[in-house]
Amino acid sequence: MSLMVDSFGRKVEYLRLSVTDRCDFSCVYCMTEDPCFLPKDHVLHLEELAWIAQAFTELGVTKIRLTGGEPLVRTDCDQLVSLLGKLPGLTDLSMTTNGSRLTKFAKPMFAAGLKRLNISLDTLNPILFTQLTRNGKLDRVIDGIDAAIAAGFERIKINAVILKQQNDNEVIDLVDFCRGRRLDIAFIEEMPLGEIDERKRARHCSSDEVKAIIESRYPLQLSNKRTGGPARYYTMADSPIHIGFISPHSHNFCHECNRVRVTVEGQLLLCLGNEHAVDLKSIVREFPADIERLKAAILAGINLKPKQHDFGNNQVQILRFMNATGG
């Protein structure tokens, strides 16, 4: 049972833990075109990440998702997975990845105890893929997805961000790709983080618009599937896969938010759409053996968790890119 209950009665049972701000891609909706990465001494060490994770599990977190940047650019990530997999009370250990390194790491990560993968894939057009990622190769990601299937991962989900006049004509193609490989897929509305201008606002594609495109081919039925995250899932009559929609703009899910994030700098982010944060790194480094002090700081932070974000207000702008936040 979670000891972390915020001032609005929501139980926090889910931690998204960023292990790096670096990535081998530079996706247009995730980071600036010329990113400036953190110095190495600003980044949490392996043991510090594991220590923070232990504190959260002792407070009742049962689900941890490793994020980045791209977690697999960190060479000790498999060691972290092994450490976290041994934490009592942790029932779900997963990772969000761009898939480019899975041909090398899918098997060792599965062997280390990673249970689930979310793999980002926004287009099946190789040219557009390189444009959206600024340097990625589509064939490497497809090979990585197939390597993850071959390694034994059974609960793989594709994440896709749909942008108007860029990849909105590929919604059905992405669904068919997942149907063919029996992968779930979640369509995610672009988060209004970083530098937002009218061009970026104009490319926003809502979950309702994506859902309408899918239903022009495949009727959808609401599912009772729950993963502990914000997605609403649907099914199709002729396929076992689930189609999810994550809609921070159009269908606010804050009333049931059960998660917090810790950045690779050790900042406890209480809401993706607000600037509230608690510095855990300074506690870990000043009092490296005092887990009770760390847990007390986490609990105090949970009380600051805001009621909701307000992405619908065009004046709200969070000057923080997703690679620094953690997916």
Describe the structure.
It is built from 11 helices and 12 strands. The chain has helices at residues 46-58, 77-84, 102-112, 126-133, 138-151, 171-181, 198-202, 207-215, 281-286, 291-302, 322-325, and strands spanning 14-18, 63-67, 92-97, 116-120, 156-161, 184-188, 221-222, 232-236, 239-246, 259-262, 267-269, 277-279. Strands 7-8-9-6-5-4-3-2-1-10-11-12 form a 12-stranded mixed beta sheet. It has 327 residues and is an alpha/beta fold.
List keywords for this structure.
327 residues, alpha/beta, 12 strands, 17% strand
SSE blueprint:
Blueprint: E1 14-18, H1 46-58, E2 63-67, H2 77-84, E3 92-97, H3 102-112, E4 116-120, H4 126-133, H5 138-151, E5 156-161, H6 171-181, E6 184-188, H7 198-202, H8 207-215, E7 221-222, E8 232-236, E9 239-246, E10 259-262, E11 267-269, E12 277-279, H9 281-286, H10 291-302, H11 322-325
Parallel strand pairs: 1-2, 1-10, 2-3, 3-4, 4-5, 5-6, 6-9
Antiparallel strand pairs: 7-8, 8-9, 10-11, 11-12
